[in-house]
Amino acid sequence: MAKTKFRFNQETLSYDRIRHSAKSVILKIAAYFVGSLIIAAFYYVIWAVFVDSPKEKLLRNEISQLTLQYELIQKEMGEIEVVLDQLQETDDNLYRSIFEADPVSSAYRTAGTGGVRRYRELDGYSNAQLVMETTEKLNMLRNRIYVQSKSYDELVVLAENKEDMLRAVPAIMPISNKDLKRTASGFGLRIHPIYKIVMMHNGMDFTAPTGTEIYATGDGKITAATSQKGLGNYVTIDHGYGYTTTYAHMNGFNVRRGQRVKRGDVIGYVGNTGLSLAPHLHYEIKYNGNYVDPANFYFNDLTADEYERMIEISSNAGQSFD
Ligand SMILES: [Zn+2]
After folding, report:
1. Which end of the chain has fewer CB within 10 Å, C or N?
2. Which residues are registered as beta bridge partners of 243?
């Protein structure tokens, strides 16, 4: 029940009852209502700023968890990058130099990274920088791994070819030459034994008795097994990769034209046919059509010391055998 209020009237010296108009009552109620609303809003703002709702708490936890995860991923990617750096270095400096291939260009290795700023759609979020960095790094790693695996594919092909090439290139002496005693005359200017003038000697001579076995010095295909006035009976092998070898003054053949031979196969026998002073083998190597010194193609046979001695013997001989 509402209290009845009175006001003291000084003229009549009596109390008059205070009567409220409906309007003033409504105004008063409205004032109370607005006032309490303002206070409520004030408290709500205070509460919202300083106290999280359970859902907000959950989200906040989740964000910090994700941030942590991202940071961990970044750290791991950094470690992967170090490994990739090492792989790249070995690739460029070791494998590619073994196979005489050019290093993968750095432009190709870093293609598709950096430059234009990607992932712009992530801008504006508070952790955008972290997410963008991580995504960019991931993309860069993916690209580098792709380039690296491509490079390895190439190296596998190179290695396979190299094996084939190593079998083909002349690499042994054409006859058994223990103690190098059969080395007679080397590559270079020599006195011709028959013309008695200084002439270019395009190969290396090995003295040996008639009938001594002559070996193919590398894998290849016989392109000639025939006779000629100067070389006598001779065999030529095409080894591919720019190399051919010729074996002259033979006594007889053990191969036919068109036949494929492997290194060490007996292709014929030492003789004294053609322009020859005595039974010996004249051995020539051509690389891309030009004569080269066979002394440099015995890597499978000679130690460094033996090589020195052979060079000495073959260059001291003033006269060749053909
Ligand atoms: Zn010769």
Report:
1. N
2. 240, 287
Give the distance (Å) from ligand 1 centre to CA of residue 262. 24
**Can you tell me which residue has the tokens 């490994």?**
83
This prediction's pTM: 0.58
Cα 320 to ligand 1 centroid, rounded to whole Å:
6
Distance 284 CA to ligand 1 centre (A): 8
Q: 173 C-alpha to center of ligand 1: Å?
A: 14
Amino acid at 129: Q
- Does residue 51 form part of some domain? no
Take residue 122 and report the two structure tokens written for it: 């992530």
Residues 97 and 150 in one domain: yes
Kindly give the distance from the C-alpha atom of residue 276 to the centroid of ligand 1, in angstroms, as a whole number.
8
Which token pair is 36? 């309490």
Crossing angle of helices 128-168/54-90, nearest 10°? 20
> 297 C-alpha to center of ligand 1: Å?
16
Report pLDDT digits (tens) over 196-221. Answer: 888 899 999 999 999 999 999 999 99
Residue 201 CA to ligand 1 centre (angstroms): 6
Measured in Å, residue 181 CA sits from the centre of ligand 1 at 16
For 65-78, what is each residue's pLDDT tens digit? 988 988 898 899 99
Residue carrying structure tokens 């073959």 = 314
Domain end position, chosen among 147, 168, 189: 168
Nearest to 168 by CA among 293, 261, 284: 261
CA of 166 relative to ligand 1 center, distance in Å: 26
